[in-house]
Write a structure and sequence with these properties.
The complex is a heterodimer of chains A (110) and B (114). Helices cover 0% and strands 58% of the residues of chain A. Chain A is built from no helices and 11 strands. In chain A, strands 2, 4, 5, 9, 10 and 11 form a 6-stranded mixed sheet that branches. In chain A, strands 1-3-8-7-6 form a 5-stranded antiparallel sheet, with no helix packed on it. In chain A, β6 and β7 form a beta hairpin. The radius of gyration of chain A is 13 Å and the shape is globular. Chain A starts with a strand and ends with a strand. In chain B, the strands form 2 sheets. In chain B, strands 2, 4, 5, 6, 9, 10 and 11 form a 7-stranded mixed sheet that branches. With 114 residues, chain B is an all-beta fold. Classes of the chains: A mainly beta (110), B mainly beta (114). The interface between A and B is medium-sized, with 23 and 23 residues.
Chain lengths: 110, 114
């Protein structure tokens, strides 16, 4: 059974720092991995989608990497801003559904 | 704008009173799914649909029903809601179930059953 773990569960940093959020999964037979952002009480916004054949994807200040063989993905946030404060979720798609980690709650203070 | 639209955004109801949460997508996606999100348990799949008239159970289907009569709509039905169904619900869609397509999520429906 696929299990997805995110570390750390919470993170508080000053503005301007570069951050790394970690996601690990137990079954490497995945189709893709997707990173989402969720603001309190709100919906999920897709940030990056990495196909199983890809190693990384970039969008603005965000860079996500994927190492299928080791069951790991990292989300790198450059030059963090207070507006980046949110919960970040990773999700993997393997056999028939999207399976989510429990998220990393990020707070960036001025 | 490509989107998944859920209604209502907030709903408070009483135990046993049937309700429907609507979900509609404008992207011609084949695959649609419902999730619930609870503190400490994360997001769990309730039901999914691979196409019109094709639906199947997810991980937590008890107490819920769905239908897929049209490609764009995938309503979630609670025939007799109970307090343990108080949760944040999300509808999601994807072009197809598998093959590397990403998911688009709705804004969520916060349901409280008293």
């Amino acid at each position: 059974k696929q299990e997805v773990t995110q570390i750390p569960a919470a993170l508080s940093v000053p503005e301007g720092e570069n951050l790394v959020l970690n996601c690990s999964f137990t079954d490497s037979a995945i189709y893709n991995l997707q990173w989402f952002r969720q603001d309190p009480g709100k919906g999920l916004t897709s940030l990056l989608l990495i196909q199983s054949s890809q190693r990384e994807q970039t969008s603005g200040r965000l860079n996500a990497s994927l190492d299928k063989s080791s069951g790991r993905s990292t989300l790198y946030i450059a030059a963090s801003q207070p507006g980046d404060s949110a919960t970040y979720l990773c999700a993997v798609f393997n056999t028939d559904k999207l399976i989510f980690g429990t998220g990393t709650r990020l707070q960036v203070f001025p | 704008e490509a989107q998944v639209t859920q209604n209502p955004r907030y709903l408070i109801t009483v135990t046993g009173k049937k309700l429907t949460v609507t979900c509609s997508q404008n992207m011609n996606h084949e695959y649609m799914s419902w999730y619930r999100q609870d503190p400490g348990l994360g997001l769990r799949q309730i039901y999914y649909s691979m196409n019109v008239e094709v639906t199947d159970k997810g991980d937590v289907p008890e107490g819920y029903k769905v239908s897929r009569k049209e490609k764009r709509n995938f309503p979630l039905i609670l025939e007799s809601p109970s307090p343990n169904q108080t949760s944040l619900y999300f509808c999601a869609s994807s072009l197809r179930r598998a093959g590397g397509y990403g998911y688009t999520f709705g804004s969520g429906t916060r349901l409280t059953v008293v």
